[in-house]
Design goal:
By secondary structure, the protein is an alpha/beta fold. It is 40% helix and 13% strand. Helix 3 packs parallel to helix 9 and helix 10 runs parallel beside helix 14. The longest helix has 18 residues. It is globular. 47% of the residues are buried. The mean pLDDT is 97. Bound molecules: pyridoxal-5'-phosphate.
Length: 379
């Protein structure tokens, strides 16, 4: 492959010295959990997300679970309560809801943005007024926060947990519940993932929770540390979901490069949008009102041609991927509960989406070359 879909080794190579320096610092410190690196990363993430608090945790799924569990402990939600989420998300969003004993309400996305549209959410809220919480997923790096979202949430008194796993540093076109526009600060709480393939990737698993709610932050922090508020004093039946100092130190290096890497992702997305002309391909929207961070650049190709399209690209040395081929409601683990749901947009998108290479080290020149290969696709 001349253009692999994702090459983490090549992406990490320019940071080798900085990463080694950070790792050496942690090894030499003799302090490996709940220390200065984690505290510093939390401050840096809170600043980036424009929130008062950040709690570093073990991974993105745990970040989602810990917020929902904290809301249960705090009495803000109750076992069995309904949580609305877009049906085309990665399964982790739904796993967090069911693992917490809450009930997912899967909603079809708007096919132009791949995200939950406020009008579609409103229709669902009219049908199911007992929906208590909302999990907007900023899928592919596009903020899931359309016009009227804040008003709708306030009207229906929803608790909002953003799944910010794919959108670190993104900015919505419309202000969130606290007046800020940065994803991670739009709702009452947000979960970010630092899985190695995400825009800011750890060298292993890591994640964080951001919020302006001091009580929630303290509850999440306690739950992630065996449920203890002070040493050997356990107020909850908690977990061990901490981030270690090594990942925190490495992530701080990665964070320093985020704005330059996001700018490059945006330039690559623009190059694709300009240069892809194939009548077989629907390109994603670039919305000048928001700051998309392009975790994925996802095109749509009619399902009978998708395999041929991917084979054509592979023959030209271009790696592609599908996010996601099987949506959560079609997974064996949910077939009893959700197998009969009618989610035509989600099912159609699962058959049409193709992700093109966009992560470092892909450049604008690479994107133009890949677009030329795409434009030669014929069936
Ligand atoms: C990656 C991801 C998660 C889970 O994050 P992990 O750190 O892998 O646990 C959750 N939601 C979405 C949308 C994701 O892409």
């Amino acid at each position: 492959m001349r253009y692999p879909f994702l090459d983490l080794k090549a992406a990490g190579a320019p940071l080798m010295e900085e990463l080694q320096e950070a790792a050496t610092r942690v090894i030499a410190s003799g302090w490996y959990l709940r220390g200065e690196e984690t505290a510093a990363l939390e401050r840096e993430m809170a600043t980036l997300c424009q929130t008062d608090h950040c709690v570093a945790v073990s991974n993105g799924l745990d970040a989602l679970r810990l917020v929902l569990r904290a809301w249960l402990e705090m009495g803000r939600v109750h076992p069995g309560d309904k949580v609305a989420v877009q049906a085309n998300t990665y399964i982790a969003s739904v796993l967090a809801i069911t693992d917490s004993g809450l009930t997912p309400v899967l909603i079809d996305p708007y096919d132009r943005t791949f995200n939950l549209h406020p009008a579609l959410l409103e229709l669902e809220l009219e049908k199911q007024p007992d929906i208590k919480a909302l999990m907007p997923v900023h899928l592919y790096g596009t903020p899931c926060w359309g016009f009227g979202m804040s008003e709708l949430i306030e009207k229906h008194n929803l608790l909002v947990l953003e799944d910010n796993a794919q959108a670190i540093g993104a900015r919505a076109a419309w202000p969130g519940l606290h007046g800020t526009k940065t994803t991670g600060s739009l709702g009452h709480a947000a979960a970010t993932s630092f899985y190695p393939t995400k825009n800011v990737g750890a060298l292993g698993d890591a994640g964080c929770v951001t919020t302006n709610d001091a009580e929630l932050a303290a509850t999440v922090r306690a739950l992630a540390n065996y449920g203890s508020d002070t040493r050997y004093h356990n107020i909850y039946r908690g977990f061990n979901c901490r981030m270690d100092e090594m990942q925190a130190a490495l992530l701080r290096v990665k964070l320093r490069h985020l704005s330059e890497e996001t700018a490059r992702r945006q330039a690559v997305a623009e190059a694709y949008n300009e240069a892809i002309m194939s009548p077989y391909v629907i390109k994603p929207d670039i919305d000048p009102g928001m700051r998309q961070v392009w975790h994925q650049y996802v095109v749509q190709v009619a399902s009978p041609m998708r395999d041929a399209f991917r084979q054509h690209l592979a023959a030209g040395g271009v790696g592609t991927d599908i996010h996601y081929a099987v949506p959560p409601h079609r997974q064996p683990c949910y077939s009893n509960e959700f197998g009969n749901l009618d989610l035509p947009v989600t099912d159609t998108l699962a058959g049409r989406v193709v992700s093109l290479p966009i992560a470092p080290p892909i450049t604008v020149d690479d994107a133009r070359a890949i677009a030329e290969i795409i434009n030669r696709f014929a069936i």
